[in-house]
Amino acid sequence: MTGPNLRPGKVYRTEYFRRFDRNPTRFASKLVKRGELQQLRKGLYHAPRPSAFGAVPPTEAALLSAFFRGRPYLRTGPSVWNSLGLGTTGVEAVPLVYSTTQTGEVELGGRRFEFRRVSFPSRPALEYFVVDLLENTERAGVDRKTIQDALSRAVAAGRFDPERLITMAQRYGTRATEEVVEAAIQAEQEAA
Q: Which of 39, 125, 128, 133 could staple 81 via S-S, CB 3.0–4.6 A?
């Protein structure tokens, strides 16, 4: 059996193996039996990268990219929100991923992900993630007032663009989120 030149660490979909065999599922199964691939779930395979401690699992980005077949997705959640410096310190048991195709919890390669089908920018600015945080305060474990006060200070320090914040809030937030953003910007302007 002539096989593909598999790149260690890469995640493959079954259809990739069509170029090697008329029955790509059977072909992938043979590669799994030979230890060249690991099946992550139906239709999704990983070429393991060896290490001193065993095979290195695929990266989150490799998993998501292969799962969504190149369609847009956005990784968000507490790990992203905490980096904004707005007072959140949430931990994340299940990563939150926005997609254009599906909603629900999915297991990929032994990891669980929560997918939400929502609208998001193709190149999100930091201001988008501020709005995203405000839309998910219950998941972040922080109240809107705490975020509003921290956001006002951050805008005053020049960390976020007020115009872009308002645009993102209008495009991707609820009216309640718009009000928090407007109040934070107004408080910053009054203090200046």
A: 133
